[in-house]
Amino acid sequence: MATTKKQAFDIPFIGYDYGKDFKWDFDVLFGQFGNPIIGIKIKNMVEQYSADPDKYLNFHTVLNQAVSIIGEGRIVQKLDIFSKKKYTAEPSNQFLQQKYSEHFDGRLFKTIETVLLFTDIVQDKTKKKAGRTSTFSEKNYKELRDKCQKVFMLLKQENCEPQFLFEKDFEYYISGVLSMKFSEVPTFDNIKSTNEYLQIGNRFVKNISYVDVENIDLPSEIEPYSILGGNGAASETAVDNFTFINELEDYETIIYNQIITIPLQAPQQRELDKKKKKHEGAANNSPSNAIIAEEIQTLLHNIAIDGQLVVNAHFSILFSAETLEKMEVTQSLIENKLFTKGIIVSKNAYNQLELFRSAIPGNATELREYDLFMTTSEAALCFFFKESYPVNEESNFYLRFTDRQGVPLKVDPSDLPMKTGRINNRNKFVLGPSGSGKSFLMNNIIEQYLTYNYDVVIVDTGDSYSGTCKYKGGRYIQYTEEKPITMNPFLMNKEEFNIEKIEFLTNLIFLIWQGPDAMMSSAQKSILDNVLMSYYHQYFNSGTPWYENKTSEELILYLSKYNIHEEDLFTEYENEAKGKRNYYDILGIAFDAKSDEIKEAFRRLAIEYHPDKNLNNPDYDSEKFYKVYEAYETLNDEEKRKIYNETQLILIKSNEIIRQPKSAEEWNESFRKAIIKKIKELEEKLVAKELSFNGFYEYCDRFLPVYLNNKKHKINEKEFNLRTFLFVLKDFYKGGRYGTTLNNKADESLFDEPFIVFEIDNVKDNPKLFPIVTLIIMDTFIQKMRLRKDRRKALIIEEAWKAIASKLMGGYILYLYKTVRKFWGEAVVVTQELDDIIGNAVVNDSIINNSDTFILLDQTKFKDNFDRIAALLSLNKVEQNKIFTINNLNNKFGRSRFKEFYLKRGSKGEVYGNEVSLEQYLTYTTEKPEKSAVEYYVQKYGNYDEALRKIVDDLKIFGDSLENMVSLVNLYQNPLDDKINSFYKRMKKKHKGKNVFKIILQELENQNISFSELINQKQELYEKV
């Protein structure tokens, strides 16, 4: 009987030099030939699906620099180790976040670990010696250490996150390769070697070498990266040449062994030159010799011109599988993928054990010449794997989404990017067509926000957030005409009064008056600004001698807000100085005139000076009419006349009336008194009683006639028609249709609520109210920000943003965005309508230019217009390619429903997955039947957490789809129980293959009974049978 030949498996290492003994930053492992080995763990620079060709080229350059630094007489070995691990759920005190973790618990995911190992070339004659130890050179040893330090610094500079290996690290990687296990504590089993594969314990191990010992079949040309290809939108995406390794499934561990040996260059080039001449000499006899000679010439040319190194290279893929069948399937997949790259793998790789040993970290010295092929360093490095998987971002503030494999990844949307300068604000712009999962993603983000110290205010028009709001115990406020959302934007204290507030109110008033699409002229803006400034000045300062500390110039400037200018003041001053301007003189009556005489004088002069009587009079001065009216109003009222006589006439009689001064100083003082007198007159006439829309409206009614009737500085009626202005605004005045909207104070309890949803779907079709209600909510948010400075804040505006995306409101939007940045806040605009953003200057100037973070969902529907989107969002070709990989990868295996999205922070973005637990799905759902079913469970079990637990448990017992369970719960109007489950199962059995719910509804209609009655009826029939 034949016996199996057994031999000891030699570990090819003899010991260590420990860095701590020599003050080095690393330990040195010595190979079996006495060759020192230094290792560096790195992260491949190119994140998977980064889609950027420049990143592949850059990493290729870095690796080439590392090879050049290490130099002649040495070996560079790169091991990329792909292994599988199980996701472990992270504990959370938040129910939904705990369920999120549990949803992924135990899910397999792939990891990549990468190590670079540097050692000396060991000559074949040394390997064959009895002692087998190469001659040790202290100088050569120091040189290797120094060069590895330089390589380390290069890798650190290029963000490869290098870490020198110590003994424990060497042991981890060596034992991992020997056991072909990196996910658990390695166990060492007997190795059985055959010509076709190895068997380590119960695992089957195969090594696929790129080089055939008899014939080298490699591509004649190769780039540092490939293009994804195919017919999809992402076909132009840059990927690694060997990215297919990421797609393999039936394996336990894969080790991609990449080796470059750098011989002494001068002898190697002489040898090449000899070979070239030899083949040239035989070229006439054989065309193949001519081809070989030409290839050698090209190689020598590259070496001479580009300074490339001649190297010998080896590449092989070593993998383990649970069964021989899985090994063969994976082998076939690898060979087919390599074939598409122009690589025909070795069919004569019977040296499986030798190839396996060469993959042991630092043991590339065991490779034979026939396992290597000659090329340049540039070409060899094109075969190096360059990708890594994304990892958690190190931050105390993160959201969890999935990577492209489908396992949770911690992503900091703002703090870390702000700290590193990647973004300058936290504002976000979200674009996703209908059905792309936009609202679902936003619910997920908001629910996670609320686990932090966050205040969230949402302006919604589609009932997208009611589930999350109810679950979180937030305030859900729906606008109705019976119960409108109100605020008093006019109410503020003196400290809050500033130019931004005036700007907001000016825009608000113009919005009511002319609508969101009108353009405000400079004259209109000036009038509204002035009436507001005057209104607040009167309210805050009336009755105080505020003018005493002001210069005459400042007082003249103040009066300009009333359209009263220096020349007007001077004219009036001159008239007063001549003593012609008291009320008795204006009416032409005596000081002791009776009431009838006053009325008669007014009637006569009112007819004479009335505007209607002077329509064709070019010299008509409307001021005379108002002066007559002013005089009559005072003198016809006994109380007012008495006060007037006691003040004004006493001054006249005592000769204190302003008179023509004698000196310039006296004239200036006299003119100043005239100015102050004018101000006092205005203060008496224009009283600001209260800060509200009502108070403002009443003030306008008195202020605007004064402002608009200055003949010398007349306002064109087309620009500002007083009657129309007051008529339109009257809707918001007391008694008007929207009389409470801008007069009632906002509910102050809202300022203490961490989560508020304003649902304004009922006003989205009202062109007047929609923008105003949106502004009210935004202003409430700004007030909230100022009050709660110690909390993060987010204002999320769904389609309601369109209500204010006009040129009129552009300035206010800028003010909002500037303010949120000051108060640890963010504004998030969410939209699905492409036509609303393309070509909209306000969207570009006010929203997009002030949002450093973009979230894009599946853009396939927008593909034909994507060039315009790309231009608007400053997306280069690389970022566009990433976007078109959304939902287009072969990454659905082993996952529940999910949608991918692109998150761009600053200049670049990444694609993540939005996959959630069933409990979260039922919380975020926007489907009314699902919401209704959840509510039945909440009603029975009292709280959302318990209700969600029961739904998930009941679904398992139910044993059918969630859709059918929801339909049944809504029919039953109660959570499922044994009775309803039995009924449903009997109905399904009886009506196999038919629509059970259609049958049930038909029976209910035919018998005109309730569902509960039908269940009882069927139960009785069943029991009889």
Write structural notes for this entry.
- There is one protein chain.
- The chain is of the alpha+beta class.
- It is built from 38 helices and 27 strands.
- Strands 1, 2, 3, 5, 6, 7, 8, 9, 10, 13, 14 and 15 form a twelve-stranded antiparallel β-sheet that branches. Strands 21-22-20-23-24-19-25-26-27 form a nine-stranded mixed β-sheet, sandwiched between helices. It has a two-stranded parallel sheet with strand order 4-16.
- α33 crosses α35.
- About 0% of the residues have low confidence.
Salient structural properties:
single chain; 1025 residues; alpha+beta; twelve-stranded antiparallel beta sheet; nine-stranded mixed beta sheet; 38 helices; 45% helix; 15% strand
Tally of separate helices: 38
Taking all Cα atoms into account, the compactness measure Rg is 42 Å
Kindly estimate the percentage of residues that lie in beta strands according to DSSP: 5-15%
Count of individual beta strands: 27
In which range does the helix fraction lie?
A: 40-55%
Mean pLDDT: 88
**First-to-last CA distance:** 71 Å
List the uncertain runs: 654-658
Principal-axis shape equals elongated
Main beta-sheet strand count, sense and barrel state: 12 strands, antiparallel
Helix vs. strand class: alpha+beta
